[in-house]
Design goal:
By secondary structure, the protein is mostly helical. Helix content is 50%, strand content 0%.
C-alpha cells in the first residue's frame, strides 16, 4: 500500500513538471499536503518513514501465583510483628569463658602446722557451740508451744468468743526484721580505696 502511494506521488510530480515548472509555493503546499502520519513526502529532505513499532506486550501474570506471593509477604510481616523485641544483654551477669576454665586455680600460700591445728580446734569449738545453741532454742520453742496450747484450752473453757479471737492471725507481726551476725564483721574506721574505672560498656542502637 505504501509503494502504491509513493508511485502515485511520483506520477503526479512528473505530470506537473510536464505542464511547467513548479513554483516554491506549490512545492511547499505539495510537501505539506503529502507529509502526514501515514505517508511521507519524497521531496522532503531528511524525512524518513515513520516507525510503526508494536507496543511491548505485558507479561501475562498468573493471578493465583501473584496472590500466593502477596500472602507469603503478609505472613512474613505478621511474623515480624509477633516477634518479641530484642533485649539488650546485661554483660555484668555473663561470666566470661576465660574465668570458667577449671584449670585456672589460684595458688594458695602454705600454712604452718600450728596454724592449721589452731583453725581445726576453733572450728570444732564453733560446731559444739552452735549445736548447743540449737538444742536450747528447740527446747525453748517446745516449752512455749506447750504453754500456748494449755492457755488456749483453759481460755476455751471460759469463753468461746475469746478463744476464736485469740487464734486469729496477727498481721502486725510482719514485716519482720532481724539483724543477723555477718560472716566477716566490718572493720571500724575502714576507708575503701578509690580505684580507677575503665568504661568498656557497649552501646546498642535500635
Amino acid at each position: 500500500m505504501l509503494a502504491q502511494a509513493a508511485a502515485s506521488g511520483v506520477l503526479s510530480l512528473l505530470r506537473c513538471r510536464a505542464r511547467g515548472p513548479l513554483c516554491s509555493s506549490q512545492l511547499t503546499c505539495y510537501v505539506q499536503g503529502r507529509e502526514n502520519h501515514w505517508q511521507s513526502s519524497l521531496l522532503a529532505l531528511g524525512a524518513a518513514l515513520p516507525m510503526r513499532a508494536e507496543p511491548r506486550k505485558k507479561k501475562r501474570v498468573d493471578p493465583r501465583r501473584d496472590q500466593a506471593v502477596k500472602d507469603r509477604m503478609r505472613k512474613k510481616l505478621k511474623k515480624l510483628e509477633r516477634a518479641p523485641q530484642e533485649l539488650i544483654p546485661i554483660e555484668d551477669f555473663i561470666t566470661p569463658f576465660k574465668y570458667m576454665d577449671e584449670k585456672r586455680v589460684r595458688a594458695t600460700s602454705p600454712t604452718s602446722f600450728e596454724e592449721s591445728e589452731r583453725r581445726f580446734l576453733l572450728m570444732k569449738k564453733w560446731s559444739v557451740y552452735k549445736q548447743q545453741q540449737r538444742t536450747a532454742e528447740m527446747e525453748t520453742i517446745q516449752s512455749l508451744l506447750k504453754a500456748q496450747e494449755q492457755a488456749l484450752s483453759e481460755l476455751r473453757l471460759e469463753s468461746e468468743e475469746l478463744y476464736q479471737a485469740a487464734i486469729q492471725r496477727d498481721d502486725d507481726l510482719f514485716p519482720f526484721e532481724r539483724e543477723e551476725p555477718m560472716h566477716t564483721p566490718p572493720l571500724p574506721n575502714y576507708e575503701a580505696p578509690e580505684g580507677k574505672c575503665n568504661d568498656v560498656t557497649r552501646v546498642y542502637t535500635q
